[in-house]
Write a structure and sequence with these properties.
seven-stranded antiparallel beta sheet, 23% helix, elongated
């Protein structure tokens, strides 16, 4: 996947007007021309809040905007046919499509059940704080609006490990469901955060139930054959036993004969060992988003010149395991006013994108607002309403062009200054070379080598952030420079 670029084709506050699938259909060729080679689409199935839902409060995995359920036929993004048409248009433009897979939990049950549970401490889910007792739980899913089309599987309390609401006593909490599959124990997780972080939200799926696993495999094969996607983004893998995805991915790949790219959302910013532990547990079956690199970007953009740029890649997955690192600048969870809010400041985004687009390692993922921009309103943690504007990243189109046309070949790093770093990429192909330099402090310059074959030639900054030309010396080096707080990418003149 050399020089591939993924685009997260949505954000949390995309308008709930059913337009996203048609937008992709209409703009697929334009995105391809920009250098986008794959799109990650949001959850396409019906969720508890119907046509208003971003999709992570998943209700019916088989309803891709086809049935009148949860007060709407379409999803937030469009209808089933519009979704399929959008995927076809992306394929026609040479773009792969990655489907967002949300199977950790289910929301919006059709019926309640009287079940036996124990209540646990929300901050330590291994600590039981009640005797077993009966509650009424929203754990029965019959999907009357679909009427058993595609699948007659019905979900009940034996399909779940936990729930967060007791309708009998009108009480919220975390309740461990006592059933034959798991008893009083949660599923085994990689991390011991909150004692055990199997439970995240809603009705938590019990993957030790063989019937559940078989239904998930049937659904996955149906979904893939129905829509023809090329890969998957796996939601909330931190809360799902790695054993399930090992089995599920092996099944889909063997049944369909497709390699099926997969990237897991194991969001552990600043905790590289946990991500490496997850990769080991899944035996390298999937890539992982580089949450640690995003953490570095956020910190660097907040600290300004006080951040040591020479350490920007330290403790990142792309540094430790570049083959499986999907690199991001921002996403729908880190954007302003979201639960994991940690946005990268606007001034630093061109530097961050240069670091993921113009280096040889990692599979970069661009965030929708960084191409299209957006404005929205929502309440912050303090209860006050805020209006947020995210502007398109300056010259991101030029960085994409550079990735396609110039950022190839051998890489040499010059991470030797706290406020000014750079690297060169030099291919054997004539005039396919670049010298990248950036500063988070004052104006900077650096002597870097592009090779003796370029001696006597001049380089110019393709981004236009630095004026003039750089002459390459007899030894193949040049004195490249950049402006304060900017990135410059020098390429052969002409």
């Amino acid at each position: 996947m050399q020089n591939g670029v993924m685009l997260q084709f949505f954000h949390w506050y995309y308008p709930a007007d059913g337009s996203l699938w048609n937008k992709l259909k209409n703009e697929a060729q334009q995105l391809s021309d920009m250098g986008i080679t794959a799109v990650w689409l949001p959850p396409a199935f019906k969720a508890d809040t119907g046509g208003m839902s971003v999709g992570y409060d998943v209700y019916d995995l088989y309803d891709l905007g086809e049935f009148e359920q949860k007060s709407s036929r379409r999803t937030k993004y469009g209808t089933r046919q519009e979704y399929i048409d959008a995927i076809s248009a992306a394929h026609a433009a040479g773009i792969q499509v990655y489907a967002d897979i949300v199977v950790n939990h289910k929301a919006g049950a059709d019926e309640k059940e009287l079940i036996k549970v124990v209540k646990v401490d929300p901050e330590n889910r291994t600590e039981v704080i009640s005797e077993p007792y009966d509650i009424e739980a929203f754990t029965k899913f019959t999907f009357p609006g679909r009427g058993k089309k595609y699948s007659d599987f019905e979900w009940n309390h034996t399909c779940f490990t936990g729930i967060d609401f007791d309708a009998l006593h009108n009480e919220s909490g975390i309740f461990k469901i006592l059933n034959d599959a798991g008893g009083e124990e949660w599923e085994e997780m990689i991390d011991d955060e909150k004692g055990n972080y199997d439970y995240l939200m809603y009705a938590d799926v019990e993957f030790r139930n063989e019937a559940v696993r078989e239904e998930m495999k049937r659904w996955g094969k149906w979904y893939l054959e129905t829509t023809g996607f090329d890969g998957v983004r796996l939601d909330a893998v931190k809360h799902i036993s790695p054993k399930f995805y090992n089995e599920w991915l092996d099944y889909l790949r063997s049944e369909t004969g497709k390699p099926l790219f997969a990237v897991g959302e194991y969001w552990a910013p600043g905790n590289l060992p946990l991500m490496e532990k997850y990769i080991e547990a899944t035996e390298r079956r999937m890539s992982v988003f580089d949450a640690s690199l995003h953490h570095n970007f956020h910190a660097a953009s907040s600290a300004g010149k006080d951040y040591d740029l020479s350490t920007i890649l330290n403790d990142s997955l792309v540094n430790a395991d570049p083959e499986l690192a999907v690199t991001v600048v921002d996403n729908h969870d880190t954007q302003p006013l979201q639960a994991l809010e940690a946005p990268v400041a606007e001034w630093f985004k061109p530097l961050a994108y240069a670091l993921i687009l113009l280096r040889k390692d990692g599979y970069p993922c661009i965030f929708y607002p960084d191409i299209y921009g957006t404005s929205y309103k929502d309440n912050g943690n303090d209860g006050n309403e805020y209006e947020i504007t995210i502007n398109p990243v300056e010259k991101l189109d030029k960085l994409l062009w550079l990735r396609t046309n110039k950022a190839q070949g051998e890489q040499t790093d010059y991470f030797d200054h706290a406020n000014c770093i750079g690297w060169t990429r030099v291919s054997e192909e004539e005039n396919v070379a670049c010298a990248v330099i950036m500063s988070n402090g004052d104006d900077g310059f650096k002597s870097m080598a592009v090779g003796e074959k370029y001696k006597g030639k001049t380089f110019v900054d393709h981004l236009g952030n630095a004026e003039g030309m750089v002459a390459i010396k007899e030894d193949g080096t040049g004195d490249f420079y950049c402006s304060s707080g900017k990135v410059s990418v020098w390429v052969v003149n002409g």
